[in-house]
Model the fold of this input.
Amino acid sequence: MAKAPVKYYVVDAFTDSAFKGNPAAVCLLEEERDEKWLQAVAAEFNISETSYLTRITDSVSPYPRFRLRWFTPVTEVDLCGHATLATAHTLFATGLVNSNIIEFDTLSGILTAEKVSDSNPTDVSKIQNGRHHCFLIELNFPAVPITEFNSSEVSAISKALNGAQLIDVKRTTTADDLFVVLPSAKSVIELEPQFDAILKCPGRGIIVSGVSPSDSEFDFSSRFFCPKNGINEDPVTGSAHCSLALYWSEKLRKCDFMAYQASARGGILGLHLDKKNQRVLLRGKAVTVMEGSLLVVLPCGKSVAELQPSFDDIKRLGARGIIVSGIASPESGFDIASARGGMVKVHLDEENQRVFLQGKAVTVMEGTLLV
Done:
């Protein structure tokens, strides 16, 4: 089948600096694609989220409306804040829309993104390296309530968080994430989670947060761990703040926040809780770092290995890594197998102690690094 290029951008969200914040791939589709293709492309990008955008041409809305879906490397998700911000940034920055408001039709309903001025009171730019960008993006998301978590598994959760002191443990009502509060933002920043243990905890993932000291420019800090979705730690999680805003509004008696997500890449979010309508407004910036074309139409290859290694235990061994191999079944036509799949013809020259490798390759993307 002939190759059909699909335009894509890679955008760092909730930051004004390249290689900070949370990267998302934004794919512009002319028509809907099947889930197998969408998931394969997301696995190929292998970043926390890939978004797929299809324009809705028969909408009666006064604003441009697009169908939007989000995929991690292993599954589709119902809501993703940073990939929505990245998608809106792409549309605004490339001039694909001539409106300051965009609507997205998603699994979480109709979401809006609005281009707003830097002069807004919730000013992210004043603490993001002083660099000037022409606009912020404000996302209008549904607030996500949290509920009590009464379980004998609290001790297991503490163990998964490396014995951290848990001030509060709750659960979100939509994504089924554990919602854990630590004594301080410092505790959140210094936390060293055990990802293998998190895999055994209830729920989808764990949102961890703690209040910042009074002299900080932030109100609270957070992190999000979700190895069950193929993401050990999400760099910046907009959707998690739909619960965080509700919780910290009750604790701090306010509705406007500056929040910091304390991952290695870091991210800054301006938040406003609309209590009356139970909505959370998230504000941030974004930077486009790559653009190009996806060249393939259909995925190929099939996973053949069933090994599920414990990466935390491997890390504790002290070696650089582990090479694992096994004899493939005779009918497979191969001698050894790996997880993602690949074919290599190998010849060992025993006399000269050289190895000759023969294989093929497929170009799946081409583009330009912009920063």
In short: DSSP finds seven helices and 21 strands in the chain. Helices lie at 35-45, 81-94, 154-160, 185-190, 195-199, 241-252, 311-316.
